[in-house]
Each structure stands twice: as structure tokens, then as C-alpha cells.
Prior knowledge:
Elements: E1 13-21, E2 27-35, E3 41-50, H1 55-72, E4 78-82, H2 85-97
Parallel strand pairs: 1-4
Antiparallel strand pairs: 1-2, 2-3
Amino acid sequence: MITRPKAPPLGFAKVHADAGLSRNHARGAATAVCQDVNGEFMGSSRVVILGINDVVTLEVIAFREALSMTEVLMLRNFIVASDSKQVATDIRGEMESMGI
Length: 100
């Protein structure tokens, strides 16, 4: 059974941010893929980094790539999706402490 990701609300785009390590942990990759409400591809970004083998750091870089992509695509209404609970919790906590 294939599970499709939840579509963003009407008028929004969704950017999926993710990261991973090579088998030998010598390099990491941070990616972001943007889709519209219909699941149509809008853009993607990938960064390969040598020497960073901390997954949380790579997930934060992927989140940054997602936000950069929203600027390049000139999106005003978007959702960033990440499977990193730690990064999402940390960002949410920072936003709350800033009153956002």
C-alpha cells in the first residue's frame, strides 16, 4: 500500500525537506522538493556536503534549503514538511520564544 503525503491547503505550496548520509558517512546530503496543491513539481534543491555526518545538522541545512527555495520561487503561502521531530520541535520552540 502506497501512502501519499498530505496535500497542502488550497493556495499553498508544500516543500519537503530531508537529509541523509552516505554509507561510509563521509558525506551528507540535504534536499528540498516543492510541490503545489495538486502535487505538481515546482522545484528542487540538493546540497552535498563533505565532512558533515551529523544527521540533525543536515536536517537543519535541508530546512534552510527549503526556505531558500520559497524565496527563489517567490512563494508567500507555503508549508515546510520534515521528518525530523527534533528540528521541528527546536524551530517551534524558538518561534514561540520570539512571540511568533
